[in-house]
Amino acid sequence: MIQRKVSTRVKRLLREFPAVALVGPRQVGKTTLARTLSRRYFDLEQEADRLRLDIEWRDLTASTGLTVLDEAQSFPEVFPRIRGAIDERRRENGRFLLLGSVSPGLMREVSESLAGRLALCELTPFVLGEAPKAPMDRLWLTGGFPDGGLLRARRFPSWQSNYLDLMAQRDLPDWGLPAKPAATKRFMLMLAARHGSMWNASEIGRSLGLSYHTVDGYLEFLEAAFLIRRLRPFHANLGKRLVKAHKIFWRDTGLLHALLGIPTRRELLVRPWVGASWEGFVIEQILNTLQAEGRTFRPYFFRTSDGTEIDLLIEMDSRRWAFEIKLSSAPGREDFDRLRKAGGLVGADKLVLVSRTERVASAGNEASLNLTATIDLLSGS
Question: What is the pLDDT of residue 105?
C-alpha cells in the first residue's frame, strides 16, 4: 500500500484527541487509510452497519481501541452517543476516527456535539512524492485520485467523467444542492472554462439564467465537496487599487482536464489555457503538502489593477512567501524582476520562482526552483 503523508498527522492527532475527523472528497482513499489503523470499521451509509453498531455499541465504548465510523454525517444520531462515550472517559484519546466526504454536514454535527473533543484533518488526492512510480506530468494530467489513472493510465479520463456524473446525479443532491444534474454539469463546465480566473457570479448566473446569489450557493457546495478552491485576494494598504474578487481553481487537474476533453499530455500542452492548468496544479501541490504536514498557513493571491501580481502568497510561521508560477523550463530574468516588484509591495520575506527548470538556484531570500525543490524547501522551513 502507498504511504500517505497525512497518515503521520492522523496518528499524532489520535494520540492528542479522543476523536479525529478525516474529511476529503469521495474515492480519495480515506477508507483505505482508516483500515490500516483499526479493524473496527462501520460504514454508516449502510443500514446493516448501523444496526451492527447499535448492537455492539456498549462493548465498543467499554473497551479500548479505535473505532472507525465512515460517512458519519449520514447518521447524525451517532454524534450525541459519541459525545457521551467520550465524556465518560474524557482523558482517553484515540477512540473514534470519523470519515466524511462533505464537510458542512459533518462539521455541523461536530460543532453541535463534539466541540473541543475532536480534531479535523483533510485527506487530499495524491500529491507529488506519494506515488513514486508515477511521473509528475502524469499526476498533472490525470490528477491525484488513486483510481483515476495515476496508477492505471487507461482509466483516465473515463473514471473522472463517471465520478463527476455521480456527484451531479446523486451525491451533491443528497447533500442538499438544489439543482438538477444537467444544470450542475453545465455549472461544472463553466467553472472548468474559468479555471484560474476571477470569480464573477453575475456573469455565470446570466449564462445559466440564475441569480448571482444562487450560483454563489452552488459554488459553496462544490467547495464543500472539495472540488473547487477559492483563493482569496491579499489586501494591503498600498495606495493602489487591488483586485478584490476571488480566483477559482479546480482542486484536481484530472477532473478539470476530463471536463475540458483533454485525454493526453500532448493535447494539454497545445491548449491556450495550459498555463492556468499548470498554475492550479502547482498551487494545489504546495498547499496540500503543507496541509498534510499539519502546517498552519494562510494562502492568497495578489493583484493590483495595473497588473502587478503574485500567483500564490502564503503567510506561515510569521513569514510571507511569494510565488511566481511559470510553465517554462527556462525562466528569464524579467520573470524574477516582476516577482521582486510585487514581493516588495507586500513585504514578502521569501521570493520563489517556480518553473520546470532543472537548474535550481537559491541565494538569500530568493530562489528559482522546480516544483519538487519548492516542496522540499517548504517542508524543511
Answer: 62
pTM above 0.85, yes or no: yes
73-117 pLDDT, tens digit per residue, is 888 899 999 999 999 998 999 999 999 876 566 677 777 778 889
| 130 pLDDT above the threshold of 60 | yes
- CB-based contact 69:40 (threshold 8 Å): no
Residue type, 293: E
Domain extents for the chain?
A: 6-122, 136-379
Residues 139, 254: Cα–Cα separation, whole Å: 8
Q: Please give the span between the terminal C-alpha atoms of the chain, in angstroms, as a whole number.
A: 29
Q: In Å, how far from its chain's centre is CA 143?
A: 12
| 137 vs 101: CA distance, rounded Å | 27
Q: Does domain 136-379 have CATH number 1.10.10.10?
A: yes
- b (16+ CB within 10 A) / e for 68-96: bbbbbbbbeebbeebbebbeeeeeebbbb
Half-sphere exposure of 269 (CA within 13 A, CB side): 7
Q: Which one of 3.40.50.300, 3.60.15.10, 3.30.1490.20, 3.90.480.10 gives the CATH number of domain 6-122?
A: 3.40.50.300
The closest of 166, 133, 127, 125 to 152, measured between CA atoms, is 133
Under 8 Å between Cβ of 342 and 310: yes
Backbone angles phi, psi at 127, to 5 degrees: -110, 165
* Cell, residue 121: 484533518
